[in-house]
Amino acid sequence: MSTPLAVDLAIACARLTRLAARLHGEPHGVGRALATLDQFGPMSVGAFAMVDNTSQPTVTKLFQRLEAEGVVERRPDPDDRRSSLIGLTDAGRERLDTLRQNMAAGLDPALDGLDDDQLQTLRRAAVIIRDLADELSPLDRPQAGGTAVR
């Protein structure tokens, strides 16, 4: 059973995520992929697909494009020589930083219109939302060898 607060929170976060993707100027999947690899570290295509709730063929195609752009690289899996892990390159980290700066620059004008109480409320809410996400994250956190826990 979902509560109105849970539904409102999910909708607001989804809308803000879509807005942020438009603000950073990259396809949504690119920013999400770079941020996921930054959060979890190198992972297999299968683990990424589980964490991102995306099909493996879609992830494979995305990573091939990102690898050609030099923002991700394929590395041997130290636990399984037959497999590889995908991780960020230095260029990938720089691109993610740029995406995040572009998002912030796009959101800043709206934040500038808020009063101090509203800004403080948003700061507290951001911490609470981050903590909730951390609490829920173990459900899809990849384990060693690039497999995700469900």
TrEMBL record:
One of its GO terms (molecular function) is DNA binding. Residues 1-131 form the HTH marR-type domain. Transmembrane segments: none annotated. SUPFAM superfamilies: Winged helix' DNA-binding domain. Keywords: DNA-binding. Pfam families: MarR (PF01047). It comes from the Bacteria. InterPro entries: HTH-type_Bedaq_tolerance (IPR052526), HTH_MarR-typ (IPR000835), WH-like_DNA-bd_sf (IPR036388), WH_DNA-bd_sf (IPR036390). PANTHER family: CONSERVED PROTEIN, HTH-TYPE TRANSCRIPTIONAL REGULATOR RV0880. This is DNA-binding MarR family transcriptional regulator. The lineage of its organism: Bacteria, Bacillati, Actinomycetota, Actinomycetes, Propionibacteriales.
